[in-house]
């Protein structure tokens, strides 16, 4: 089973998904007008699924949750994390933040994916 891209519309969806997630989850802040953000979401999902397949899927599914920085309802999530650039990525394990990076940084993305897969294997 491949990772899913799941849009979050408000703080309640955030609390009922990532904070109660019993596994590893990725949160990405984006905006419709920010093409690098949109590219990163697609690129991260593709790379995550490819690396899971290389590991013979010995890790759990890692979903990617996306918050559009400017959508109505996302204000409280944005306020809580205060991303300083777009895209901005956070990694969570069992509802707790464990890593982050900002911008379209392929090296940082691959490092975060590796950490996500290692964490997922440990669960």
UniProtKB/TrEMBL annotation:
It holds the Pfam family Thioredoxin. InterPro entries: Thioredoxin_domain. It comes from the Eukaryota. Residues 1-118 form the Thioredoxin domain. This is Thioredoxin domain-containing protein.
């Amino acid at each position: 089973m491949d990772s899913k891209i799941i849009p979050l519309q408000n703080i309640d969806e955030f609390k009922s998904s990532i904070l109660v997630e019993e596994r590893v989850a990725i949160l990405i802040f984006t905006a419709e007008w920010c093409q690098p953000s949109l590219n990163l979401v697609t690129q991260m999902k593709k790379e995550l699924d490819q690396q899971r397949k290389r590991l013979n899927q010995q890790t759990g599914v890692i979903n990617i949750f996306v918050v559009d920085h400017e959508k109505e309802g996302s204000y409280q999530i944005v306020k809580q994390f205060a991303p300083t650039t777009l895209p901005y990525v956070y990694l969570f394990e069992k509802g707790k933040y464990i890593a982050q990076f900002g911008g379209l940084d392929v090296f940082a993305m691959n490092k975060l994916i590796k950490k996500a897969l290692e964490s997922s294997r440990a669960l």
